[in-house]
Design brief:
alpha+beta, five-stranded antiparallel β-sheet, globular
């Protein structure tokens, strides 16, 4: 409630996105009918209502800087950052803006979507891998939590970690778009409050929520909009298909001479290893909507012209391919090439030298593999040695 010129103005905010509600213009964010504004509380704005019930997306006139400013204010007024990272698109959700916050404030790193990884990967392996990646960026978190907002795995453990940091903590949820922030906060507070959508920019303003039975306050913030992702080069409806909602697509390949591997029509590479006797083996990982193809290099243009690939769409094709460039990368066994906003390649038997064709500006990362049998065997040997050592 505000007083303006002697008049009392009632201020209500959307429970889904945090925007101040208004009744004047249905084309502007925050709109609700006057009748609902007067008679109801705990409202959803028209935009959130349509996204929640009909899956319809309405863009808003907020910039990347607007989102960043809102997030920065929330972080400065909190005790702890809960940074949500998407394990399936780790590099795409590990943006420089987030790294800057994590270096300056206490944080718990929440690794989401671990249920989408192959079942053969143990959570300890994932946790150790994340810790190693954080160390490379000079980040030492208070703790790391592995979760699945889809199955609620690990969510209660996050609450215990927050309490161990500070019993009456104010914690800010931080993450890029599409990492599952709103799903996580709904699971944590056990209420369907935050609007869940795969569209970017769903949450517009910081929203405070008290966890019942505790003195802990959770602040939901707008998703920071990252750059350099393949998905950002596509229309929102197409980009959504690159976000996995089930176990990821994974297949293993060994290319013959003259063959090229493609993630649909989005990126492709040819192997440049010179030995005819030695053929590297690699596995590819991506959303199930993304099809893997192996073909001859001289057929790629023909397949593109005949609209063989689902991605990019025919409408986006010209602009997308005008940005293509190539680079040569050598990857050893158990290392990976991660393509931000798309997926990754894990080298089973290397070295693998490739010429990679991708849109200029997209983030390509060479990293130690999440799936690393060599490290797994070493860890198992260490555990055996500890058991055999009478000093332990």
């Amino acid at each position: 409630m505000k007083i303006n010129g002697g008049k009392i103005l009632i201020v209500k905010k959307c429970r889904g996105c945090g925007i101040v509600l208004q009744t004047e213009d249905s084309n502007i964010a925050g709109y609700v009918t006057e009748e609902k504004f007067i008679t109801e509380d705990n409202l959803l704005c028209q935009r959130c209502y349509k996204m929640k019930h009909y899956g319809k997306y309405q863009d808003v006139e907020l910039t990347k800087d607007d989102y960043k400013k809102e997030v920065g204010t929330a972080v400065r007024n909190s005790d702890l950052i809960l940074a949500i990272i998407d394990i399936i698109d780790f590099e795409g959700s590990f943006s420089e803006e987030i790294l800057d916050f994590l270096r300056d404030y206490s944080c718990i790193i929440i690794v989401n979507k671990i249920d989408l990884l192959p079942k053969t990967i143990h959570p300890t392996e994932v946790s150790n891998w994340v810790k190693s990646r954080l160390e490379e960026e000079d980040i030492v978190p208070y703790d790391i939590a592995l979760i699945s907002t889809k199955t609620r795995y690990g969510v209660n453990g996050v609450l215990r970690k927050i309490k161990s940091f500070k019993k009456d903590a104010t914690a800010t949820i931080l993450g890029v778009t599409n990492v599952g922030k709103s799903s996580f906060i709904n699971s944590l507070i056990e209420k369907d409050k935050a609007t869940i959508s795969k569209y970017p920019g769903t949450t517009l303003k910081a929203i405070k929520n008290k966890i019942e039975g505790t003195d802990i306050t959770i602040i939901d913030t707008p998703g920071l909009i990252p750059e350099r992702r393949i998905s950002d080069l596509l229309e929102p409806q197409e980009a959504l298909k690159l976000v996995p909602n089930g176990e990821i697509n994974r297949k293993t390949f060994k290319l013959d001479d003259g063959q090229v591997f493609l993630f649909d029509g989005l990126i492709w590479f040819k192997v440049k290893n010179e030995s005819e006797e030695f053929k590297p083996i690699f596995s590819a990982y991506a959303s199930r909507a993304v099809k893997f193809h192996v073909t001859k290099e001289d057929r790629i243009n023909d397949l593109i012209e005949k609209n063989f690939f689902e991605f990019p769409s025919q409408k986006e094709r010209e602009g997308y391919y005008s940005k293509m460039k190539s680079t040569t990368i050598t990857v050893d066994s158990q290392e990976e090439i991660a393509i931000s906003g798309l997926g990754w390649i894990n080298v089973k038997r290397g070295p693998l030298t490739i010429e990679l064709f991708y849109p200029e500006g997209v983030k390509i990362t060479k990293r130690q593999g999440i799936i690393n049998p060599k490290i797994r065997r070493n860890n198992e040997k260490d555990e055996e040695n500890k058991e055999d050592d009478p000093g332990n």
